[in-house]
Hints:
With about 260 residues, the chain is of the alpha+beta class. The protein is built from seven helices and seven strands. The chain has a five-stranded mixed β-sheet with strand order 2-4-5-7-6. Strands 1-3 form a two-stranded antiparallel sheet.
Amino acid sequence: MNRPTRSNLVVLLLLAVVSLPAQALHYRTRHSQHFRRTLRHRRNRHHRRIVWTPVVLHGSHDSLVRQNEEIDRLGLPRIADEQQLQELEQQRELVPIRESRILSIHPRLAPQDRFCKSWTRAFLQDLAAAHYGKFHTPIQVNSAVRTVAQQQRLRRYNHNAAPISGDTESSHVAGLTVDVSRRGMGRGERKWMEKYLLDLKEQGLIETAEERREPVFHIMVAKRYDEWRAARLEHKDVETPAQSAEEQETTGPAVQ
């Protein structure tokens, strides 16, 4: 091999060595851009799957005040402790909530806490029957009566829980209120529940809200629900609790 040829070969080798880092950088840049595009596409695809459901039944300070006004209007005690709760249950001032195929109770709710006022239980029976007639699944009660002591313990880890005194005190402590789970409800089922509850709220028969921290409908039932229900039963707008739930195909309470 002559000298010019060797010189040319050396030059070619030097050019190849110099160009290698540039080629590697070009590959890494293209690969990095492709990776970022793929990751962005996956993120966007994931976000598109998320269904945001707006809250229709908002809680408010005024609603809590109205709940306490109902307690005061009826002259009901705020149940202080387990002893007072047991006395009210024995006196049948509070009635038991019983499980059935149309109504279930959260297993962590203690037996002594599965009580409420009679008109609140009547509301639950009507709601459970109407819901079962529409969706053929039971509703679940997560909470019912509480003592002031229980409410105080609840506030230690749930800062959204109502206070234990004042004009916005929790209405659970008087036995008028239940929490119905919305966990696992589809969009149509949740919209049905919201309409059912909103119709009653607009008539002043309940106070209700979709709680933020816990996936439940908070529902306080006014005593006038008894009179409203009796009038509807008289006109056969509501079937008696003894009727088979499958025969009840109501979609919500009619607005009077």
